[in-house]
Amino acid sequence: MANTMLSQSAFRKLGNTGFDVSTIGFGTWQIGGGRWKSGSADECVGLLHQALDLGINIFDAAVVYGQYHDERKYPQSRSQEILGQAFQDRRDRVFYCVKVGQFDEYSHRSHFDANRLVDQVKQSLRRLRTDYLDICLVHAPSLADVRRGVAIEILRTLQALGLVRAIGYSFEAEPEHVRAALEQRVDVIMLQYNLIDTHCATVIQEAQAHGVGVLVGGPYKRGYLCGRFSSLEDLPQEDDYWRWNIQYNSGKVVETLDKVRALMNDHRSPAAFRGHALRFVLTCPGVCSAIVGHRSADELRENLSHSRG
Ligand SMILES: NC(=O)c1ccc[n+]([C@@H]2O[C@H](COP(=O)([O-])OP(=O)(O)OC[C@H]3O[C@@H](n4cnc5c(N)ncnc54)[C@H](OP(=O)(O)O)[C@@H]3O)[C@@H](O)[C@H]2O)c1
Questions:
Q1: How many domains does the chain fold into?
Q2: pLDDT tens-digit readout, 156-170
Q3: How far apart are CA 210 and CA 201, in angstroms?
Q4: Residue 1: per-residue pLDDT
Q5: Less Cβ around it within 10 Å: N or C end of the chain?
């Protein structure tokens, strides 16, 4: 296999934060378990170590990734616990990006009041076994929530206290939300941009002009763009994420698969298609890093090789 280690040039400045982040990041929703079938904690820790050794230095998590309730019925986050286990002795080599405000992995319900945000940041620090977060983002607020600006003010207070270094928002493919966020003082925005969801191309450049670092979550759109799925039957039923969507959201799933089939036509293999999908994101001006849900060592190595192709 070709050398898959990231080269020096595979790092970019994350806006004005002063952070040099790897162009390929690691999203931990998938390895957190929860709605995804995941390996054992030791396997996931091994995968994270491998990612760091190959040059990845930015790791994305949310309090609701891999959510479960402990014996006191208190919500916990397996993705964060695994990260804490993996990097407690290598903390200075990684950037943690943590999303707060949501409290249910299924419904995506959120609350951006001070008590909840402060508690979620404190619990994240405990699970990650650290005393600061590098990046803390308000997780998927409505446009009204962004304009209200209350959540970002709370994060700004935590930033002043030294608990978080950079703050911002995490959105879907929502240009209007990004524009509203750029009217405030933010350091980082995570958003969705991929071969299908292209509406944010212009605002990514606007963010860059404001000195705001842009992270793209999900360059393969949860795996739709990984070249393996062209019909409902191809979707992996072992993941609760896919089962739920097939059951409750099948119209949207079929519509997306139709788009994927049309896009895949021009590519000689699924791997070539994945390379195209990843490079599409990384060559968009203003994108600093693509946060990928790598689920195995093979996927990790291949994804890193695409970033250099
Ligand atoms: N604000 C946002 O924009 C946002 C939203 C959601 C998530 N995120 C973050 O972004 C991360 C990734 O986003 P995403 O959930 O949309 O996932 P993604 O990275 O677009 O796709 C991940 C899926 O693609 C498949 N895959 C990855 N590499 C592959 C390879 N080399 N060969 C074949 N299949 C491959 C895997 O499928 P299998 O599992 O079947 O192997 C994996 O589940 C999340 O973990 C999260 O941290 C951000």
A1: 1
A2: 999 999 999 999 999
A3: 15
A4: 46
A5: N
Nearest CA to ligand 1 atom 17: 222
With vertex at residue 217, the alpha carbon angle to CA 184 and CA 25, rounded to the nearest 5 degrees, is 105
- Over residues 181-199, the mean pLDDT reads 98
Q: Which range, of 17-26, 101-110, 182-191, 242-251, averages the lowest pLDDT? A: 101-110
Q: How many whole angstroms separate alpha carbon 178 and alpha carbon 180?
A: 5
Residue 218 CA, ligand 1 centroid: distance in Å: 5
Within a domain: residue 3? no
Which residues make Cβ contacts (< 8 Å) with residue 299, sequence separation at least 6? none
Q: Which residue has the tokens 């508690």?
A: 119
Q: Tell me the CA–centroid distance for residue 78 and ligand 1, in Å.
A: 17
For the segment 192-207, the average pLDDT, to the nearest whole number, is 98
CATH of the domain at 156: 3.20.20.100
**pTM of the model as a whole:** 0.96
Spatial distance between the Cα atoms of 69 and 75, rounded to a whole number of angstroms:
4
Q: How far apart are CA 53 and CA 202, in angstroms?
A: 34
Q: Can you tell me whether residue 211 is helix, strand or coil? A: coil
pLDDT in tens, 34-45: 788 888 999 999
Given a contact cutoff of 8 angstroms between Cβ atoms, the answer to whether 178 and 203 are in contact is yes
The answer to the question of residue 171 being in a domain is yes
> How many whole angstroms from 83 Cα to the centroid of ligand 1?
17
Ligand 1 pocket: which residues have CB below 6 Å? Answer: 27-30, 60, 170-171, 190-192, 217-223, 226, 236, 274, 291-295, 299, 302-303
